[in-house]
Design goal:
Strand content: 5-15%
CATH architecture of the domain at 9-231 and 362-457: Alpha-Beta Barrel
Bound molecules: ligand GBH
Distance between the termini: 13 Å
GO biological process, one term: cellulose catabolic process
Shape: globular
CATH class of the domain at 9-231 and 362-457: Alpha Beta
Active site: 363 (nucleophile)
Largest sheet: 8 strands, parallel, barrel
Strand order of the largest sheet: 1-2-3-4-5-7-10-11
Order of helices and strands: EHHHEHHEHHEHHEEHHHEEEHEHHEEEH
Number of helices: 16
Number of strands: 13
Radius of gyration: 21 Å
Keywords: Carbohydrate metabolism, Cellulose degradation, Glycosidase, Hydrolase, Polysaccharide degradation
Family: Belongs to the glycosyl hydrolase 1 family.
Function: Plays an important role in cellulose degradation. Shows hydrolytic activity against several glycosidic compounds.
Length: 460
C-alpha cells in the first residue's frame, strides 16, 4: 500500500472548557475548572474559560470553518455539567445542554463531518467534587460517570458512532492531584495513583455498559485517549535505554497496560509499592480489553537519561539536547514541545507492536512562538506549525504504508486558538487565529497543510 486507506478519517480536535465559554449560560453548572481558574496565580495570564472562543454561541460558524478546511471528522468533548449541572445520577438533566450538543452533531452530519465525541476532557462537575471528593471516591464517581455516559449514549448514540471516554488520564491524575498544576490543584504522592485507578475503572465500566446495552443496536466503537511523548534514550548505554522504557511505563503503560493487558507495569509496581491500588478479580475482568482502539495524543519526543528526576516520570531526566549539544528540533512557544517527526513514527510502531490495536491519533499539534504578541497578519504565516504538520503527517504516512501500522484516523490540535489551561490565552495551538476581543476567526497557513496532505494521500 502506498496510500492511506479510503476510509481514513482526519480532522481537528477541541475540548468543551477550552472553547465553549457561556460558563453560566444555558443552565450549565460549574466544573472544577471554573473554580480552579479563578484561584489567583494558578493561570499564567489570570484568565479563565468564561468566554473562551465563544463556541457555545458561534458553533455554526465553527462547523462552517471545519467544512472549509475539508475535514472528514471533528473531535469535541461534552461538558458534563452542561448536561447534568450537578453531575450526579440523581440530579436533574439540563435539556438545554442536551439540545446544544444534539444540534452540533446534526449540523456536523449535515455537512458530511463525522463526530468523534469525548465524554471527559477534565471538566468534572464541581457538584461532585463538593459532594464526595470527585475522582477520589471510587463507589460514587464510577456510578456517576457511567450514569453520565448512559445519558450521552441514549441521547446521541443514534448519530454518534465513535466514543472516547477519557482524554489523557495522566493529566487528570498527575497534573490535577500530584503537581497541583491543573484542577482541582491537589499536591501529593498518594492521591494521583488512587485517582488514576478510579479513572480506569470509570472508563472500563462505561465501555462494559456501551458494549452490553448500546453497541448491539447502535453499532459504534468506544475507546480511551492516552498521551505520551516518545522517549528517546540519550545514548545506547543500557541504563539510558532502560530509563527510556521506564519513562514510557510511567507516562503510558500505567494506563495502557491495565486496559490492554490486564496489569500495571512491573517498573511502576516496583517504584510505587503499596501506594498502587489493586483491582479485584471482578474489576480486572472488566478493565482488561476495555478499549476498541488505541487513542493517542502525542506532541513531541524527549531525550531520556537515567536518574535525577522525580518519581512522576519514574526517576528519569528528560530534555531535548543530544550528547553533541544539538537540539532535537524546532522549539515551540511552550518549553515542553519541540518538533521531531521520527519520534512519532517510532511511537506508532511501539504502540502497534505492544498493544496490537488500531490507532487513532486524537491530538497532534504545535504552538508557534510569539503568536500571543505578533499582529494577526504575521501570525497567520505560521511557518513553524506548517513544518510541524508536514513532518508529522509524513511520519504517519510512513508508519502506515512502510511499517504496516494500522492508523485509522488523525486529528490536529486544534481547530482554533483556545484556552490553553494553566497557560491561559498566551499559548496558541490553533490552525485558526482567534482575536479574543472580537472573536473573529482567521485561517492560518497551516489550515491548508493537512487538507492538501490528505487530499493527496488518501486512496480514492
Ligand atoms: C493536550 O494536553 C490536551 O488534551 C489539550 O487539551 C491541550 O490543549 C493540548 O494538549 C496542548 O497542550 O507537565 O512537563 O508534561 C497535552 C498534555 C499537559 C502536555 C501539560 C504538556 C505540561 C508540561 N500537556 N504538559 S509537563
Amino acid at each position: 500500500m502506498v496510500k492511506l486507506p479510503s476510509d481514513f478519517v482526519w480532522g481537528y480536535a477541541t475540548a468543551s472548557y477550552q472553547i465553549e465559554g457561556s460558563a453560566s449560560a444555558g443552565g450549565r453548572g460549574p466544573s472544577i475548572w471554573d473554580t480552579f481558574s479563578k484561584i489567583p496565580s494558578k493561570i499564567r495570564d489570570g484568565s479563565n474559560g468564561d468566554i473562551a472562543t465563544d463556541s457555545y454561541r458561534l458553533w455554526k460558524e465553527d462547523v462552517a470553518l471545519l467544512k472549509s478546511y475539508g475535514v472528514r471528522a471533528y473531535r469535541f468533548s461534552i461538558s458534563w455539567s452542561r448536561v447534568i449541572p450537578l453531575g450526579g445520577r440523581n440530579d436533574l438533566v439540563n435539556e438545554e445542554g442536551i439540545a446544544f450538543y444534539r444540534g452540533l452533531i446534526e449540523e456536523l452530519l449535515k455537512n458530511g463531518i463525522t463526530p468523534f465525541v469525548t465524554l471527559y476532557h477534565w471538566d468534572l462537575p464541581q457538584g461532585l467534587d463538593d459532594r464526595y471528593g470527585g475522582w477520589l471516591n471510587k463507589e460514587e464517581i464510577v456510578k456517576d460517570y457511567v450514569n453520565y455516559a448512559r445519558l450521552c449514549f441514549t441521547r446521541y448514540g443514534d448519530l454518534v458512532k465513535n466514543w472516547i471516554t477519557h482524554n489523557e488520564p495522566w493529566c487528570i491524575s498527575v497534573l490535577g492531584y500530584q503537581k497541583g498544576a491543573f484542577a482541582p490543584g491537589h499536591k501529593g504522592d498518594v492521591e494521583p495513583w488512587i485517582v488514576a485507578h478510579h479513572t480506569i475503572l470509570a472508563h472500563a465500566y462505561t465501555v462494559k455498559l456501551y458494549r452490553e446495552e448500546f453497541k448491539p443496536t447502535q453499532g459504534g466503537q468506544i475507546g480511551i485517549t492516552l498521551d505520551c511523548h516518545w522517549q528517546l534514550p540519550y545514548d545506547d548505554s543500557p541504563a539510558n535505554v532502560a530509563a527510556a522504557q521506564r519513562g514510557i511505563d510511567f507516562k503510558l503503560g500505567r494506563f495502557a497496560d491495565p486496559i490492554y493487558k490486564g496489569h500495571y507495569p512491573a517498573t511502576v509496581k516496583a517504584m510505587i509499592g503499596d501506594r498502587l491500588p489493586e483491582f479485584t478479580a471482578e474489576e480486572l475482568a472488566v478493565v482488561k480489553g476495555s478499549s476498541d482502539f488505541f487513542g493517542l495524543n502525542t506532541y513531541t519526543t524527549q531525550i531520556v537519561q537515567e536518574g535525577g528526576g522525580d518519581e512522576i516520570n519514574g526517576r528519569i531526566t528528560v530534555g531535548f539536547t543530544r550528547p553533541d549539544g544539538s537540539q532535537l528540533g524546532t522549539q515551540a512557544h511552550v518549553s515542553w514541545l519541540q518538533t521531531y517527526p521520527p519520534g512519532f513514527r517510532l511511537l506508532l510502531n511501539y504502540l502497534w507492536k505492544t498493544y496490537e490495536r488500531p490507532i487513532y491519533i486524537t491530538e497532534n499539534g504545535f504552538a508557534a512562538r510569539n503568536e500571543d504578541v505578533l499582529p494577526v497578519e504575521q501570525v497567520i504565516h505560521d511557518v513553524d506549525r506548517v513544518e510541524y504538520f508536514e513532518g508529522y503527517a509524513n511520519a504517519l504516512l510512513q508508519a502506515v504504508t512502510e511499517d504496516g501500522v494500522p492508523v485509522k484516523g488523525y486529528f490536529g490540535w486544534s481547530l482554533l486558538d483556545n484556552y490553553e489551561w494553566a497557560d491561559g490565552y498566551l499559548t496558541r495551538f490553533g490552525v485558526t487565529y482567534v482575536d479574543y476581543a472580537t472573536q473573529k476567526r482567521t485561517p492560518k497557513d497551516s489550515s491548508r497543510v493537512l487538507k492538501r496532505f490528505f487530499e493527496k494521500h488518501i486512496e480514492a
